[in-house]
């Protein structure tokens, strides 16, 4: 193992040490962003006006699989939408 490989490994270990305490914060931020995105996509169905509804309509087939996790995190035990049955 050459000097360059040892240096590269030391940098990787140092980077891992710096990231370790922030993993939960990063995961929480990503989840919050996803929840906000899901609220934006499904806001029209929940009765909230959404000017981007036309553009988010194409995303439904992609995000419908994550809809169940989202409405549970949002505090809704059952799906709030009549057209989408996930529970």
The total beta strand count reads 0
Which assembly state applies to the chains in this document?
single chain
Sheet of most strands: none
Q: Into which percentage range does the β-strand content fall?
A: under 5%
Number of helices: 4
The helix fraction, in percent, is 55-70%
Average pLDDT, rounded to a whole number, is 84
Distance between the termini: 54 Å
Return residue spans where pLDDT drops below 50 for at least 5 consecutive residues: none
Number of domains: 1
- Look at the helices and sheets and give the structural class: mainly alpha
Organism: Mesobacillus selenatarsenatis
Protein name: DNA helicase
Pfam families: DUF7990
InterPro entries: CC_star_Cory, DUF7990
Architecture blueprint of SSEs:
Blueprint: H1 3-19, H2 23-42, H3 53-56, H4 60-73
Pfam families: DUF7990
Protein name: DNA helicase
List keywords for this structure.
mainly alpha; single chain; 87 residues; 4 helices; elongated
Characterization of the model:
- With 87 residues, the chain is mostly helical.
- The chain has one domain.
- Helices cover 63% and strands 0% of the residues.
- The protein contains four helices and no strands.
- Helix 2 (23-42) crosses helix 4 (60-73).
- The N and C termini lie far apart (54 Å).
């Amino acid at each position: 193992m050459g000097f360059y490989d040892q240096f590269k490994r030391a940098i990787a270990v140092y980077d891992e040490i710096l990231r370790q305490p922030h993993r939960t914060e990063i995961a929480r931020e990503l989840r919050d962003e996803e929840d906000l995105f899901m609220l934006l996509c499904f806001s029209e169905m929940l009765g909230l006006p959404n000017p981007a509804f036309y553009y988010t309509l194409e995303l439904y087939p992609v995000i419908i699989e994550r809809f169940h996790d989202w409405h549970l995190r949002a505090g809704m035990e059952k799906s709030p939408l009549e057209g989408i049955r996930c529970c």
